[in-house]
Every structure is written in C-alpha cells, then in structure tokens.
Predict the structure of Transmembrane 9 superfamily member.
Amino acid sequence: MAAAMVWLPWSLLLLSLMYQTSAFYVPGVAPINFHQNDPVEIKAVKLTSSRTQLPYEYYSLPFCQPSKITYKAENLGEVLRGDRIVNTPFQVLMNSEKKCEVLCSQSSKPVTLTVEQSRLVAERITEDYYVHLIADNLPVATRLELYSSRDSDDKKKEKDVQFEHGYRLGFTDVNKIYLHNHLSFILYYHREDMEEDQEHTYRVVRFEVIPQSIRLEDLKTDEKSSCTLPEGTNSSPQEIDPTKENQLYFTYSVHWEESDIKWASRWDTYLTMSDVQIHWFSIINSVVVVFFLSGILSMIIIRTLRKDIANYNKEDDIEDTMEESGWKLVHGDVFRPPQYPMILSSLLGSGIQLFCMILIVIFVAMLGMLSPSSRGALMTTACFLFMFMGVFGGFSAGRLYRTLKGHRWKKGAFCTATLYPGVVFGICFILNCFIWGKHSSGAVPFPTMVALLCMWFGISLPLVYLGYYFGFRKQPYDNPVRTNQIPRQIPEQRWYMNRFVGILMAGILPFGAMFIELFFIFSAIWENQFYYLFGFLFLVFIILVVSCSQISIVMVYFQLCAEDYRWWWRNFLVSGGSAFYVLVYAIFYFVNKLDIVEFIPSLLYFGYTALMVLSFWLLTGTIGFYAAYMFVRKIYAAVKID
C-alpha cells in the first residue's frame, strides 16, 4: 500500500507532462509557404473500408485522370500500409475560389461508365469505401455535426463537431446506389506575418470536403469546363445502376477560409477526434488500481518471504530442519535445466528483441518524432529497430543458453534469428497471397518482400550471431545453489496449479491495466483512425511491465511452495497469460465492432490478430520470466543451504 502511495503522485505528474506533449509537432518537417494563386497540389492516397480491410489505389476506380500519372516514391511503412500516393487532375490555387469546375472535360461531354466499371463502383460503394486525399500533406476530412439532446428545447441543443477521415465514395438508399460525384473542397489557410514591403505568404492548416451526389440532368455545363450547381434541394442524387452504362459528370468546387490555427498545430484536428475525457479517466483508473494491487501483492509476498527465510535460517531445532517444507525443499532441483533449452532461450531472445524495439518506438513517438505527418515513419522505424535490436536478443539468448548447459551455440543463434521472424514472415506471406488475389494495394510488392528478406538475412541474422557469440562466451548467470544429481519426485498438484488456470489467473491484471488502450489501438488499425496517444501508451507500457513482473513472481512462488521445480517453461507460458485475454478481446471486437462478413477480410483479421497475440505473449512472457528468474536467484541466495 505504501509503495502504491509513493508511485501515485509520480504517475500523475507523468500524465500531466504527457498531456502537454501530446500536441508536440514532429521536428525536422519544414512548412511550405504559398503565395497568392500558387498551385496547391491535391494528391490521392488510397481507398479504404473497415468492412473489407482491403485498401485499393485511387485509380482502381474510373476517376478522372491527369494527362500524366505520377506516383510518389514511398518509404517501407507506406508500402506496408497500402498507400499509393498519386497526382490528381484537381486544379487548386492558393486563396482562389472556384464555384464549380468539371473534370474530364472533353467538349462538355459527360463521362460514360461501362457496365463493368459501373458494377465495380457500385460494389465499392456497398462495401463502405472511403476516399483519402491529401493537400500539402494534410489528409482530407469530412465534418460531422452531431447535436446532443441534453435539453428538450431545440434552440439549446449543443452542436458537437467531429471529423471523419476521408470522404464516403457514395451511399445506398432503398436498394439504390448513389455516387458522390461533386466534391466541395474547403481549405483553411493561416496568413503569415510579413514586413510591409513583402508579399503575403499562406500556409494550409486544414483540408475539409463536403461530398455531394448530383444527377447529370441537374448540372449545367459550358465549353469552358465551368458548371452551375442546382439551387437548394431541387436536385436528385446521381444513381449508379450496376446492370447498364451510366453517364455522369465529375465536378468540384474550392472555397478558402482564413484560420487562426498555426501551422505547428494543424494536425490537432485529426488527432483529437475521440472523447479524451473517457481516455483520461480510464488511464488514471488503471494507474491507481494497478499500483494499489502491486503494493498489496508486494507487502504480502515480502512479509511471507521474510518469515520463510527467518524460519529456514533458524538452527535451534534439528528436527524442524529435518521436517522442512515449502520452497526450500526443492533447492537442489530449482535450477535444473528444462527440456528444450535452445527453443526456450531462442524465444526469450526474440522477446528481448521485441521489448527493446517497442520501448524505443513508444518513447521516440511520445517525444513527437513519429507524427502521422511523416507517413509510414512508425512502421519503417519499427522494422529497422527490430532488425538492429537483434544484437541484444542474441546476447541475452546466448548467455541464457550457456547457463542452461547448452553447447551448440551456432545452432542456437540460427534458431534465435529465424524462429519468431520465420513464423511472422510465413503468416504474412500466406495472407499476402490472398491480398494479391484481390488486386489490393495492401499486397506487399515482390521487390519490397525481397528487400525485407535482405534486411532479415543481411542485418538481423549477422547481428543475432554477433550478440549470441559474445553472450555465449560471457560468464553464465551465477546460480546460488548446486543442482542434485538425481531429480526429486514432484508431489501431486492441486487443481489450481494447472497450467491453464495459471494463465487465466496471471493474465487478468496486466490485461486490465491496458484493455482501454487496446480499444484505441484496435480502432486505429481496423477502422482507419489516427493513433497518437503515445504518452498514454508509454505509461501503460510501464504499468504492463510492473504488473507482469509482480504477477510472475507470485505465480513462481506458489509453484515452488507446492514443491514443483519445473518453473522455466511454465513461468514463460503463464506470464504471457494476458495474450489469451487479448485474443478473447479481439474476437469480441470482431463480433461487436466490425461489420466484416466475407472470408478473406475475416482471414486477414484473424491472421494479423494471431501475429499480435504471439508477439504480445513473447513480450509479456519474457518480462515475467526474467523477473521470476531474478526473484528465484535472490530467495535461494538468502537461505542457508547445508
């Protein structure tokens, strides 16, 4: 309890600091200054849907194309995310209004969609696809005005403004399908302070769109590619009939507004899309509960241990010493090497590699250096860091393997470098084949796959070997007691010492500390939201490490008291018990939050979820294992062994 009270003010101070740094902008990204009538390029990123989880590139649909299509050179993270950034024919000039302009204007003739194109567009609309555009690296957002009905008086209803990423491709109404063929762009600029004799410069600070569906007959066009929008609500929407050819116009308008938002704060609109109050409350609740529970567990186990050690070290009564019971009884077997020491040390090495990578990524992201404005930076950084952290994973695996009386260090190093990454690559390759079959931009291109393999075998593998070599040569961990020649018989265990019961018991506390954050992470991954609450995530990660360590120590203490010395593998499995709850939560999220019905999207969801659960089990299992190993060495060093 005292420990919890000491931790509480520090955790609240850390929370306040994180709140201040949440809007911190990524360093090293220079703003672009525009003059009056300078072109502001509108680019397309991709089409996405939370129902199919399959992104497509913009020109997979029959949109109007510029005279020359140019794709942006992309980093590794953008390719893995399915981004294919390409230019569009929208002509937007800084602070220059456009009432209505026709795209694909060839002597004012409408665009004709073939039956096949119409069917494809209709299919994408029914699958709830969103179109993602960017202007000056700012993603387009659709404004949603929600009215909260707190008062019965309509005049007093509060208007809550939220933003949706991208814009809907179209909508369905009474079994009819309609396409959003007119886009009203609303761009906000911030006027920079200049000296009197200099020309004003502008910076783009927000990019909104109001999509509309306007029937061909209601649009009036002229030979200069201008058009006139129908007034009021007289127009009908543009229907897409998938059984025949459809004629329509693609049009757009541009409206500029001045804004007080400065360039450094322009991403705040996109990063504060959800209710932060709930988040704050849940995080503080997790902090308080976990630290109080940690304090109580620490008090119980420390008091019990002190009594145990005091009793074991008494030499007054020889008969008491002969009839000793509890964890001291197994001192001659507690450090007996387990079965399959090479696989255990390899998995723990990969866990250390993951731990170092996640810690650095979250910390760097918390400082604002992996902002969403740097597209794909988070995934690129994570991939490269995992490769370079191989030296630490190899070192820890090599030293542990030697401690467990292993001799084949070269085979052990190869196992460490290929076991976990091989499983990840294998699952991703199989899923990628299905995505290829759907012609989705989410499919990793063959050259990128070759580049990833070169990184694995050219960077990670040599570094793991290097770390393993030095770890294996280093002095093994010093165990305080000798191991007996003949293994001790293990008494029959109670039902609650069952491995699966242990997983259920050990997993609930770490999962309880992080499940709110898990909801936000799942929303970011599966519902195309931005995730930028890395300050909260860093705090949750610390709570996770503390709770995993303490639960692991409690579980290994109970096991040794039951005179079962086979704790190596059991502790590794049980400490990762929260991964089981992550799997259960993922199934709950799939059933209740997502509207996925097709086979391939379901396969993708559960394939990637399996990778997440495996990685989380490795991470928490490694944290728990090393905490338990330190604890076991400490307690056996504290008692007198004859």
About this structure: The longest strand covers residues 202-212. The chain has 16 helices and 17 strands. The mean pLDDT is 82. The first helix runs from residue 2 to 21.
